[in-house]
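Make up an example, fold above all:
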Amino acid sequence: MGRERFRSTKVLVALLLLAFVAGSVTCFDTLGDEIARLAGLADDLADWHKMEVPDDSGESVAVGLTDDWHPSLWTHLKTAADHVDPHRLFRESVAGAYDHPAQDGASIGVAGLGHVQDRESLESDSETITDELSQNPDDLAAVHRPGLTSPFRPPLAGHPDAETNVPERPPFDRRPLFQHHFNTFFNTPLETGFFGAGLPSFNFFDIHANQPWWKGENVCTEREEKDEDVKANGNGGEVSVNGGGDGDDDNFALRGFSVFNMNVESCTMKQNKYICTSIKDLNGRRRTEKVTRQCCHGYGRPRHGSPNAHCEKLDLHSMEETAERLGAKEFIATLKKSGLETTLDNQVTLFVVPDGAYSSFAEQMWENNLVAFDPMARAKRAIDFASMTARDVILAHTVNGSYHIEDVSNEQLLKTDLPGANIRINIYPRRPTSKHQRQHVDELPYRYAANCVPLVTVNRLTERGIVHVVDRVLVPARNTLMDIVEGRDDMTLLRTFLEMTGLDKMLREQDGAFTLFAPNDEAFLKLDKDIRRKLKAGNGCAMNILKNHILDLTFCSMAAASGVKTSTSNMLNERLEFEYTPVDEETVTEGMPTADGNSKQENERIRINGQATIQEADVMASNGVLHVIDTVLPTDSGMPISTTLANHNLTIFKQLLVDAGLEDEFDDMSNRTFFIPSDQAFEQTDAGRHWIRQLKEHPENLRDNAALREFLEYHVVEPLIKTCSLEETMLPTKSGKDVRVNLYTTNPLFTTVMNRATVNCARLVHFNEETCGSVVHQIDRVLDIPKMNLMEALAANPDYSMFLGMVSATNLTELLSSKEAGLTLLVPKNDVFLEVNAWYQETLQNKDELERIIRAHVLPNVICCTGIVPSEWPFVRTTETVGGNQLRLNRSRRPEVENAGITKCDIVAQNGIIHEVNDVINVKHQRGTVAAGAGNPFPSFGSLARPLSFWFK
């Protein structure tokens, strides 16, 4: 029994010690005391290791920890006892401070964590002590992390530093182990705590393996600070609270309580960098602080290592040797012959060219090192190579400073040593690959280009800088896109069209980034002569046609990948698709010219939207890139209205234009909004069917037909209005008559979001189709010009005579005749009143009741049938009548208003619309007068359980 009890005691003590040590190694609230306590504990354990106690029988039984009982725990405790002098640490912590050199060379005082100090330095100190406690004894002398003094070993006897009067070690602290350390066992930082260190192996002593790489060794820190006064911009982002603090009240001492100061901090991690940026606003002053932690020069992290792999030492060579190892010996030889060896002694970024590509380029140089291309090619490309020497070529590949490719942003310009020449860096995604392919290809997540030349090898660190390998010689980009167009003799038409539209000014901007897919003269000659005429006129058609060929970014040919489609949007926000396609054998013999003027054999070329082929790619400019194409890219937004109608199968409206002789007139219109009925819409209305019959039976009568002209022009509104700009209003048409625009929502929750539009109650079904300087909205009904107001429309229909009699007996005739009114009239036909004739005759005698009933059939706004959607509890939609009654709106088999179904929709009048209904609107029980909770199955919910009102505009 005694032995079993001691075994249980042994297990309990071991668990307590395990929790104690785990909590101790991660708790640094009192650094000196904890180290001394831990060291003292280890020494006591060393004595306890051999401790024996008598059992029940009087025999001595060993209950201390043995080396083979828990090797892992004992090794860590024994290491701490051997290599930490508790008396020295205890004395120093009591004395107040010890100084150690910081990474930047300054001395930072640490006094028991009592002083205000740099948090980053404190973390470094804590991690160093923890690492020393967890290392093996043999490693401590060799491994030391910056931030603390060298690892302390007790001096040998006779050493000058040996202590002669060592105070007696404090006794073992037998207070409950969990009293101070239980919380730290679970509340340690994620990266060093129990749960952050990997539960499967319970390796919570290995703190170094779980700390972020940017807190490890061989990491250099750069700090940038910027202060600026932001009071000029409003209040600098500060928000006053409690009505205080304008900054001038001296009686208000606690300024921090008068304003809300916004602090923002964000961090991002790259392969070899960890960057944190914080922005603090305080009383009109803004401080921006950027801290960059990166592997020091000569160190780097393995690209395909673990996510937390630390910085490792790299095997670096000179820039010359590195470039030669990368296969650029001829490039380096030219650099030496040009007397530029001294540039390699500085921190530079060198874009070197492999020997094969450089030899091909050098073959065209004269003996005096002048670049000599074919004169015809030079005139065609408008690049003066004859003024460049071999020295200039090398300088155009040299950039001062070290630029890691992953630290360069897209469209960034790197200034070279050649005056006036920059290198533009572009970043493109890789084509989709399978997981198996990614595992067997050592590649960056993106593709990089320098002046549209692919980078084949990147980020080779040298002793003095960085080397990148490019696919071919970089052409210096010193001319703008417009300069290149003006210098080519095969782009005279393009130059004229750009100047007529004013787009030439944009292509001359030096700080821009554009891509111009430039049709040559042969491409423009393929166009219809009418379109060429519009281009020369420089109107909206010309502007849209040219913008269809321009991107506001740099799109190099390498952005397109073979075997997949690549897409982007042009300046019209229209989509362009790029795809490599095979070319004919005759074309292959010529090859595709490259940016350096050479012509290499290619069996594929890039097709744009399946219509135009890039004949000459990557002509680099200072503000982007130019590609020569063989066909003008068509776009509806650059086509006249007649072409747009044909492309969208709006054949009836187009044929009416042709037969009326108005096609050219409509094609010349600009800044217009066209509401065009579909062919099906013509067949669904009386007015539409009338014009269909005229087309079939009497087309000769349509020429210069005044009624047809008015009908067609009634579908044209000025100015150009897209759906995002539509408002509920009356719009003037070219015919001189107005059309009414209404907006509705179909969402029961977001009742203020208008997602359905009508014009004279004809619904817009397709919209925002751009045409030559205008826009086309397709509608589901023809627009027939209303000739009468509501009162006249009632009088013109004999089926409405009984309702008209009720209106005439009241004082509402003026309301229904008003030109400014926009009303909805709910009209029961005569047969409805005949079914309740007795009630009808009685009501005619009661003037008050009669007016109340008529007002219940008049809505003060226009609600077309398309605006009435299904409406169920709890999202019940209602609208108010001119009499103040609430009518429920719903749609099941047909649109419904309260108790009546709408049998005929949207009879358009000049001042509103008429709906025929199959019942008299019953307004005896007005919803607006019902008390809260009356008839409510959930009275405790109050108004939330009642139907929610919806108000139409």
Remarks:
- The radius of gyration is 42 Å.
- The longest strand covers residues 219-229.
- The mean pLDDT is 74.
